[in-house]
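BUG: 3D viewer hangs when loading the predicted structure for this chain

Environment: internal workstation, default settings.
Expected: structure renders.
Actual: progress bar stalls at 90%.

Input used:
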Amino acid sequence: MSTYRVGVIGTGRIASSIQDEMLSKPSFVILPHSHAGAYSAIPETTIVAAADTNAERLAEFANRWDVANTYSDYREMLQAEALDIVSICTPTPSHAEIAEAVGASGVKGVFMEKPVAQSLGQVDRVIAAFEATGVKTVINHTRTFDPYYRRIKEVIASGVIGDLHAFMVHWHEGFLFGSTHLFDLLRYLTDSDADWVFGDIVEGESLFDPGGIGTIRFKNGVDALINVRPGHAAPLEVDIVGTTGRIRIGGSLFPELYSKDATTGELVKRGFPGAVWGVSAMTTAVLELIASIESGAKPASDVYDGRAAVELSVAFHLSSKAHAPVALPITDTDFEIQDPWGRK
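Structure tokens produced before the viewer hung:
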């Protein structure tokens, strides 16, 4: 059994403390739910070093996860430590610069936070950095690795709800920083790339990047109707509609299955079929990264999937500006989606 030396860049919420929040939330998230938590749950991985410009946050992280070596500069960490895997948990504007340094450092794999970047040009810098040395990647589009959403994919494939027809979605956090989770999930569940996007973005209503409403038409004919406009009261929820049934799931909504009654034709609530393996999404993401390093197996969401998610975010912005549908692929690689919240 190989042992992988792990370094974490950025020791804040997603790297460490987010799983504490899950304990008090009405959700069915399986722990661990942080980068450090996932590494600690896997015998093959050991966090040997961490880097953060915030000394207090770094010290707290090192104490909690028993990390011996800490650095205020990630470049020093990359130079001093013989790392196999690096988690990039810093704010999105820093991703491209850090990726270039990590890619050149000799690591085997990277577990990166979403979104990969704020423009397609920046994403392409990240891809080039990793391709240059053959680094394997996983992007933390959490729900794509979640066992409940994976079970839903199996249920869809079994034909229980007939042919997949459409998604109706309520989401939060804007069309980039939150919705890249959604876009990756939709591509995963449909097994299809997007064909075109039509959206209307509402500027100035959110602390996060702008949200709005819109439609994605996938190449296999499935539509996704999305409400990510700030201020709505609906919790995060995905309604998956087929020709003979539907599935609903959300942040606190355990999967629900409805299918047509054979006699009346009306939709009837059924017991959600089957069980799931009790392995958290974050743990699965790391395990798939290890599998990619060892065998070349493709993870459910890698940096190329990350690019596709950012491309959909950009497409919504361009569609809103043009007041017209926008076809993919997007050729404007310089358009950058801003984050008014100023996360650091």
